[in-house]
Amino acid sequence: MQNSDALALSTALLAAAGELTRRIHEGVVARGFDGVRPAHGFAFVRISAGDATVTDVATHLGVTKQAASQLVDELERKGYVERRPHPGDARARLVVLTESGRACTRAADAAAADAVRPWVERLGEREAADLVGKLLAIAPDGPVRPLW
Questions:
Q1: Taking 70 as the threshold, does the pLDDT of residue 28 lie above it?
Q2: What is the number of other CB atoms lying within 10 angstroms of the CB of residue 20?
Q3: Cα pseudo-dihedral 18, 20, 22, 27, rounded to 10
Q4: What is the pLDDT of residue 145?
């Protein structure tokens, strides 16, 4: 692959990822969740998986524990998460989604479906499915996180 082709591929993937993030965020806001930012969605991914501590959120987001604690504090003030005692560690607290947090994640799922629908219409079902397979073949296995 020539450098110009590699640059074109990189640019296209970054543009698509940025557009997808923007459209999901706008869809979440349009569904009544105007107090959230895209970074919150990345945190919701880890928190919704269960058994999340602030340290787990920090690791998932690739930030310091202090930064993750501030983000969790913000989500708690907004009513999206709550802290509960950790059943296996008296010093730790679990971060769990509230009903409002779960509703926000459902809104994000619906917004994501809306965001990719034009891509599927443009490519067709078969090519879109092929694209998913190809992207999964090259995507890293780690957490999906924002670039700070």
A1: yes
A2: 15
A3: -170
A4: 65
Give the separation between CA 2 and CA 103, rounded to whole angstroms: 46
d(CA 90, CA 84): 11
Q: How many CB atoms lie within 10 A of CB 125?
A: 9
Helix (H, G, I), strand (E, B) or coil at 124: coil
pLDDT band at 92 (very low <50, low <70, confident <90, very high): confident
Contact 20, 34 (CB under 8 A): no
Distance CA 147, CA 143 (A): 12
Whole-angstrom distance, CA of residue 35 vs CA of residue 116? 23
Can you read off the two tokens belonging to residue 36? 């959230």
Q: Mean pLDDT throughout 85-104?
A: 93
Straight-line distance from the first to the last Cα atom of the chain, in angstroms, rounded to the nearest whole number = 29
By CB atoms closer than 10 A (0-12, 13-18, 19+), residue 50 is exposed
Counted residue by residue, the chain has a size of 148
SS (H, E, C) 31-93: CCCCCCCHHHHHHHHHHHCCCECHHHHHHHHCCCHHHHHHHHHHHHHCCCEEEEEECCEEEEE
